[in-house]
Structures are given as structure tokens and as C-alpha cells.
């Protein structure tokens, strides 16, 4: 499971914001022998120059060949394709993981692709930035982030532990276990709806506005509207089954509020805002995160 | 216009987050003789104890009597009532101002209340916090905030300049002039819609969610959902004429997006997100703020 120097061998396929940040954080620990690969020549150059890796492989298959853990960091469809293409090359007994923000389809496709003896533990790190690419990679990106773990019932406990150790080395101990369906249903609210609501706030704007008309509310509510449209098109379409109902609920709530406002129903307007504030404070006080 | 020590006399009526922060910031400059009043005994005690004022008056009328500038810092209906009650006590040649987040009705009521020789310059400082009260007052609240100024055509230039000097002493040089109607139309988008959208995001939540399922998008999009329900009921109802149409546009955009998602229209989903991101970047690059 380790190289001559006693280090665990890890492959990171995709060296953008997520994979690049992972490489930088793990490299710093000194505990891993990191082989990387990215389909983009520019990205490979930037990652090599930054010293994020021990070895740059010439292909994904070459990168995973000796790895104890192979991490795929790309949008969902690319991850599915890459893992399928690497299926014959994973080391027996190794663990395959990925960081996609949507899981049901990814989980189904990956578990169907992998040969016996190679296990899969899906991870969704609750971390990101508006701008992707290795240029924005940051060794602190994952520090204290929540990590959702998903794995099949027959996944060896040892594989889950290997991923948990790696998460700890990324700087977090906040882990939550979900089934892929449970993950996708909850994320449809906690992440997908937030991105849709924020983007929609910038689908319109006010004629004549200046920055002097904006304050913290505008800045915060619209921050993630500066979105990676390609990545999020994929994530949202792949989770449409869960996003559409929570978005429908959001639209119904807004429609009720608009009616209360137009009719001057003070009690309804107040009640809506009061409940929202109470919920927000309840959510902030939520527990249920396992410390690993 | 000044006391024996050459200081301008200012009255601040209402010593919560907005008035308290103003008192703290102006006190620090040493250039003002500040008299304050707040209807709440607890607030008066806290403000006195913090040394935010030179004098605590026994009533609003007493506070404004010798003031060169009288600033009313309360929700709109209270501001209208207080200014009406003080109308006979303002010093001739003095300036009356307030910090309400909605202006058409406030402007109309105040200009109708004031005697000749007392001028009015309305201000909307684009600054705030989720929690109000003197306990949250902060001498840096107004630092670099945008200030919208509104005044009648016959308002003396000298009165506007006096308010601009005070804004500079609060730590900002970012000023924008609007008519009250223009202000309310633009603010309906840049502030009111943001608060409604954020509150509505917390009108619902996902069963089974934990904090590990949330990241920056959730934190930022829902920050202002921890809202002062009473204040915002008043602000939103008083600006319903402008809020309802922008909220209607928001609902229509979300409804279109939901349909695109449900039908799997990749081009429409991508186009929506792409336009939103482009707009967000355009807004961030907006100019049009006057430096005073």
C-alpha cells in the first residue's frame, strides 16, 4: 500500500480548483506520493510549476496504475467517462473516489464500471469558489469543510477509513454519511437551490443602479451568481429530479409573499419573515455532523 | 451654526444600530456636539454608558432645539411621526435628515411637516447588520458605505453640503443622488428583493440536512434571512409598488428556469446561468458613484 519511503500513493485526475487544491494540501503533509494527470496541457504545466505533485503522468491510466487511492476531480460526465476508461488499470485493493456535487447517477455508473477488488467511496466536499482552474487552487480550500461520504453496503470498512484519513489530511474532521439519493435530495436545497436563486437574482437588474445602491445583502446574495455555467448546467440537469421540487416550493413561497405584499396583508408579510428568521437560526444551530 | 467651542451641534433621534453607529463615529471625530434621544430607556442607558453622546436629552423635541442637523434613525412610520412631533422645535436654518430605506412616502410626509426655513435632505446609507439595537452599533458601520441622497429642488445647496460633510465624517465618500421615486425603484431590486429572496430560501429547508451539507453558497445566500421581521415588514409594505414587479420578474425567471430543467433543455439552462454570470460581472464593474 505504500512506496519505498512509506508513503501512500495517490493519483489525482483533474487538477483544476478541486484536484489542484487537494494536491497542494496533501503535498504539504509530506505523507503522500502524489501522481497527477489533467487532460489540459496548460493545467499540467501550471500544476507542475507550482510543485503540487511528485509525478505528472502522461495519461489517467498511467496515473492510477500504482495508486492506493485514485481521486477523480472533474464534472460528473467527465468523471464517469474517465473512470470507465481507467477501469482495467486500477490496482487491486485500491480505492476510487471523486468529488462530484451530484451522486445518484455518478454512483450507479461508477459502481457498474469498477472490477471486483477495487472499491468506491464517493465524496462531496462542501467547498468551492466562484472561479475554477488550477490558478484558483488553494491548499486551504478544504480546511474545515463538510464532507459527505457515500459508499455501497459491501464497501470494505478499510476503504472508508482510508478516505477519512485523507479528509483529515485535507484539514477537515466534519463528515456526514448519506446514501446517494439522500445526498442528492438534501444538496438540491443546500447547494443547488442557492446557486439557482443567486443566479436568478442577476438574471435581472435595475436600470440606473450604481454600486452605491448596493450593500452587504446584494454582495452576499449574488456572490455565487458569478457561476461556472458549464459545470452547473451539468450538475443541475443531473439532479433535476430533486432540484425541480425544491425550486417549485421556493417559487410557491415567493408567489404567496408577493400576493401578501400586493394586498398589504401585514400579518402575512410579518409571519413569512418571522418564520424565515426562526428557520435560519434553527439551521445555524443544527448538529448531526460526525467528528472523525 | 456652532457651539462656543466651534463645534457643529447635531441631534440624533433613535440610538439603535443606525443612530448609535452614527453617534459613535461622529463622536470620534471630535468635531460635533452630539445630543441624543431614544424612546427606549434601556437604549438611552446603553448609549450614555458607551459615551456615544455629549448630552442625552429628555425628549426628541428637546434634542433638536439647538441642533444644526437633526438626524432621525428609526423605522419609516416612527420617523414620520417623530418629525411631525418635532416640527415646531427645529431651529430655523437647520437641516433635518433620516436614514429610512424607503423614501417616496417618507419624503412626502416630511416635506409636508416641516416649517419654512427648515430644510430636508433624506439619506439612505447602504449599511446594516442582521441584528439591530445599540448593542450592535459600530463606529465603522458607515465606513465606505454608499449613501443615496434625496432632496427637494428648492433645498439650499448649503444644506446638502452640510450632510455631505457629515457623510465624509462617517467614513464614506460614496454618494449618489436620486429622486425618491428613483431611489425606491432601484432599492426594490438592490436591497428589498435580496432580502425577500434570502428569507424565502429559509422559508423551506431540507429534512435530514446538517451543517456538513452547507458551504459558502448557503451561508451567503441566507445570511440576511436572519431578518428584523418588524422593520422589514414596514419597509417592504411601504415599497410594495416597486417590490412587487421586481419580485414578479424574479418569479417568472425562476419559473422559466424550472421548466428548462424539467424538460432537460441544456441550452436554456446554460444560457440562463451564462447571462446571470455575465450580468453579475457587469454589475461588479458598474461606475456612476460620485466622489464627494
Overall description:
- Chain A has 292 residues and is α/β, with parallel strands linked by helices.
- Helix content of chain A is 48%, strand content 14%.
- Chain A has eleven helices and nine strands.
- Chain A has helices at 17-29, 41-49, 60-64, 76-86, 104-113, 157-169, 180-201, 216-221, 229-238, 240-262, 266-284; strands at residues 8-13, 32-37, 55-56, 69-72, 95-98, 119-125, 146-151, 174-177, 290-291.
- In chain A, strands 3-2-1-4-5-6-7-8-9 form a nine-stranded mixed beta sheet, with helices on both faces.
- In chain A, strand 4 (69-72), helix 4 (76-86) and strand 5 (95-98) form a beta-alpha-beta unit.
- The longest helix of chain A is centred in the last third of the chain and has 23 residues, at 240-262.
- Chain A starts with 7 loop residues before the first strand and ends with a strand.
- The model of chain A has no long low-confidence stretch (mean pLDDT 94).
- Chains A and B meet through strand 7, strand 8, helix 7, helix 8 and helix 9 of A and strand 7, strand 8, helix 7, helix 8 and helix 9 of B.
